[in-house]
Amino acid sequence: MSIWSEMDQASKSFISGFFNEYGIRIINITKGEDIRKDEVSHVEIVFAAETDSDGKDTVVSFKLTGQASDLHRYISSIDCSTNPILDLTASGEKLVAGAVRGRLWHFVNTISPRVAKIHKEQSILATRPLGKTFILNNKTQFKVLKDDGEGHLTIGIIDGDVVREAKLSANDLLDGLYVGMIAPA
User: Fold this and answer.
1) What is the pLDDT of residue 53?
2) C-alpha distances in angstroms, 146 versus 36, 139, 160, 177, 182?
3) 152 by DSSP, 3-state: which?
4) Going by fewer Cβ within 10 Å, which terminus of the chain is more open, N or C?
């Protein structure tokens, strides 16, 4: 019987929900060192490709320090493609389900802010603006009419029945989406 099958339903829902919300496919955890040669857990997260992106998975890695620095001693990977499958180390196999559950909850709570930020950045970078409508500062609506492929967009500012053309750089659109001044309509 696997540790996953021994966990309570609330823990399974919390952990599965986190993986599904952010499109996480696989998490690999290995031993690493920080610049002071202290033990850390090196985390590599593979996000499933966005449907409108180039079809490639996004891989992000970072180090966990502090209380989560020893996670690599117990869990080596989590395959999230369907139901999460925990690949435990020899030390992890010796833990009871409650101890593994506690480490997983702590792990998810520790990486949640990073994963949310990464997910936001990836979804913004995957934005294909041509033909889409956006709202600037919650009031000005515009549609991307042309993309010259060189970073210059022609937009149509919508004012009732009138559409006025203007120029906008693709970088400014992405920056606006990132800071929240621009939102998809």
Assistant:
1) 54
2) 51, 22, 21, 18, 18
3) strand
4) N
